[in-house]
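Researcher: Good morning. I'm working through a list of sequences from a screen, and I'd like to move beyond sequence-only analysis. For each chain I'm collecting a predicted structure so we can compare shapes side by side. This is the next one on the list. No need for commentary yet; just the structure.
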Amino acid sequence: MDLLLPSEGLIFWMSLTFIIVFLILWKWGFPAIGNMIDERKKFIDESLAAAKEANEKLATIQQQGESILQEARAKQADILKEATATRAAIIAQAETKARNQGARMLDEAKAEIEAQKQAAINDIKKQVAELSVGIAEKILREKLNSDSSQEALIDKMLSEVK
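Model: Good morning. Structure tokens for this chain:
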């Protein structure tokens, strides 16, 4: 029965030891454990607050990223519109320049053709005049072989002049 029921002395010393250990723990152990629990709770709360703040910052950054992306897309669209307009203007300018240059070249070609035509006409007139003079000279030489025919021609011309 001693195993199941301890003696009164044993109960006293066990109670006294329990109370001393409990008081020591109460004085130094429980406050240290409480402080560690409080510090751990504070660390966890701060970590949760920091995580919440980080999530909020991340959401803000994502919103800013989206707005920047939309802004970039809008600028890209504006640049494309501007490039298209510039391209159209350059094409129109090139077409106008080509038309003007073509018209100028056509006018120059017409002027060159006209100049060559006039030169050819003048050359033909010169040749005709030379041929006419040459033919007239040959005819006159044949007709005016004698002095009497020369004097008759001179008299005729003088009478026509008067």
